[in-house]
Amino acid sequence: MEKSQRAKVDVWIEGMCVLLLIFYLVATLYVAFMIYLTAKLWAFHYFTSTPFSILKKVPGISSLPQQSQQMREALNLPDIRRGERINILLLGEDRRPSEKGPSRTDTIILISVEPNSKTVSMLSIPRDLWVPIPGYGEGRINTANLIGEKNGYPGGGPALAKKTIQYNFGVPVHYYVKINFEGFKRIIDLVGGIDIYVEKEINDPTYPAYDGYGYEPLHIPAGWQHMNGDLALKYARTRHGSSDFDRLRRQQQIIMAVRDKVMSLDLIPKLLPKLPELTQSFSDSIQTDIPMDVVLELAAIAREIEPQNIKRAVIDSSMCLSTVTPGGAEVLIPLRDKIRPLIEELFATPTPVVTQTLSQEAVEKQKLAMEGAKIVVQNGTGNEELTEKVVKFLLDKGFQVVAYGPADRTDYQHTVIVNYTYKNYTLEQLALIFNVRPEEIRHSPVNLEGVDIRVIVGKDFSFPSEH
Q1: Does the residue 230 lie in any domain?
Q2: Residue 376's domain spans which residues?
Q3: Which tens digits make up the pLDDT trace of 18-52?
Q4: Is the pTM of this model over 0.70?
Q5: CA–CA separation, 94 and 253 (whole Å)
């Protein structure tokens, strides 16, 4: 019995050691604590509706199963062991200890880990970005969590936040980590504080008090500063004398500072004796849906990721248009044509290195599978028999057709492609197959839920001779 208990403790300590090393990947070490404490499956959501209500589902595509492993397969969750990219949404709650109920998210950072190239990407998203929130009209992007919690959304506020990010940026969001102010401060204090280089002096006489009443004047001199949790939180949140974009950069700076501290070899032995205390104290500060097996898989590659392989970016003023809504709210309108190249740079999976033993067809299918573009086919010719023939043809070629049906009319003379996201290889291949002219490729400024590319087949289409 004693041996069994000791073995369990050893496994716990070993697991915590490797988890410490991946802190900077998800901007918080204590994902593991929540997973161990809850020891249950997190709720996943699945949207059965489609933006094209007239479309038929492709035969063979089943509905969401109930068992955990089947859920992951149905939701196309990545397998890190096969080198598949994993994307995690970090949410920082804008809620003080005195406040109860649903909250907005003060921090929104999309973190991506690419196992094969051993790279990490971080994209900070402005909280005032005005975007479509699936199923709830338009609003600030930081209200998605609030709306989801208030309306009993499947999976809660984080699930709607994940869906909103995916809907607007075309990047699949697999998991989330949500942390509140108290958890943020505790983490910084746990590692003994962090060292931050402050580029410009910060003087904010109207920084809001932590309890929500009155002010706590904030002054941080320029230069290197050692910060405890309370000061680091203020440094991350203040906007006085600067923009929200500067605040986003400071948040990333803090994440990297914590990463540097945690990666110190002398830190792990100091943290291990505190595990019982930490397990209890962090249970109300951090929420996540990352399964333990995924956490451990991330830990396995963390030590191989060098600091220079961590890319950081912010959606800044050059990619947004500042405006005021009819209701008087000051918001940022995303300039999607300027954001797209950044998304492509940070989140596009590198083209695989293919050996010469693979045929050209196999290479093309492999590239299509890696992009995973979801395609809708619509028949604009009036020839009803053509629809299923085109769908079968595309499936045989390795394309992922998720729905098909008639177009809005039957007199399309030329095939039209509507591009909603950033699946460029798939887009190029479809343009070649359907011989689509450049002027017939349309780039939509608004993403369509669950669809990357829409093909409207015109009367000019004919199957290749080898078909």
Answers
A1: yes
A2: 360-457
A3: 343 343 334 333 333 333 332 222 222 222 222 22
A4: no
A5: 19
